[in-house]
Each structure stands twice: as C-alpha cells, then as structure tokens.
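Hi C.,

You asked whether I'd gotten around to modeling the 210-residue construct. I have! Everything is below, sequence then structure, no commentary in between.
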Amino acid sequence: MPTRRKDARDKTRTRKTREKHAEAPAPAITFNEHVANFVLGNVKEKALIVAATAALLEGHDTRHLRMLAAEDENKFNVFEVRSEFKNALAEMGLSLPSKKEAATTLIRFWCRQIVDGKVDPYDGAGHIRWGVYDRVSGLGEEKCAGDALGIATIVGPHFQICELKDGVSYEFKGKKLTRAEAERSLRQHIVVAATVYLSVKSGACGHNES
C-alpha cells in the first residue's frame, strides 16, 4: 500500500508540474513553433488561429491565412479551422511537419532561449521535457526521444533537479554540494548541453539545419 500511495503522489506531482509548464508564459514564438506545438499535441485548434496571426505578422499573406486569422478564438468551428489551416499551408507551399520535425523545431527554439538567457535553464529544459520528450516517447515508428533526439543531456538535469531535496548533501566529481549548489550546477549543465545541441549542424533524427 505505501508503494501505491507513493506512485499516486508521484503521478500527481508529474501532472501538476506539466500543467504548470503548459500555463507558464512563454517567449514570443513564430508560426513554425505554433505549428510544431499543434503537431505534438501541446495545443488545440485555437492555437492555429494565433499561428495564422503570427504568420501574417511575419510577412506571409494568403487568402486562407487571413480567413483563419479572422476567426473568433472564443467561438469557432473546429473543422472549419482545420480546413482553413490546411488550405493556408498549401497556399504557402508548406506541408504539416512530421512529429520528428516538429520536435526538432521546438528543441532548437527552447535551446536558443536558454543559451540567449531569455528563459531560466530549468524552465527551458522543462518545456523540452514536457512539450517534446514526453510527447514523442512511445510513438512506434515515430519514436524519437532521449539520446535519439539528442536531448538526454538537457532533460536529464531537469529530472535530477526535480528530485533534489532540502537538507540532503549531494556529491559531484568528489565534492559535497548542498541542494542549492547542486541545482546551480545542474542548471549550468543544461546551458552547456543546449549550447552543444545548437552547435551541431546536422540536427537530431536526420533533420539538417540550413
């Protein structure tokens, strides 16, 4: 019974943490990141309306893109929004990215935010963990997570930070660290890992950066 209660608490903590990251304000994202979030299931059809507005602001201009951007975010037909989005992509000469491509888009975005100091390393890694790692794990032929995505060194420290406890000393490279010191070290590891990820010209899962 104690083990079952612990498992239930862990699941509840994981769910609440994921919801916290989903609700946290994020830096301004472009049309590509909006689409990637939609493909990975991080957002619903309403986000496509926001994505259309972002595309217009970026200089894209098509008939269905304008129609989509004009939709009421609080009252819209899901099927019409999907149809307008599909037509807008066709007009722009684009196609819906695969889950692997969407994952790479979001990883690069959040790594750039981390490296540029626009988000806290822990928060940025959290977006990659909850919005990418958890979304693409176990997708059968689409499976592309952890080492396969090249993000194990980014999400790993995030997992470790979540497990840190007050009043416990931690050992790193032969040195005893307090919880605060260990967390600071892990945040630095995230920044380094994000920098390395961005420095690799050929992205994870065969995606090539231009």
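If it helps when you're writing up: Residues 31-91 form one domain.

Thanks,
B.
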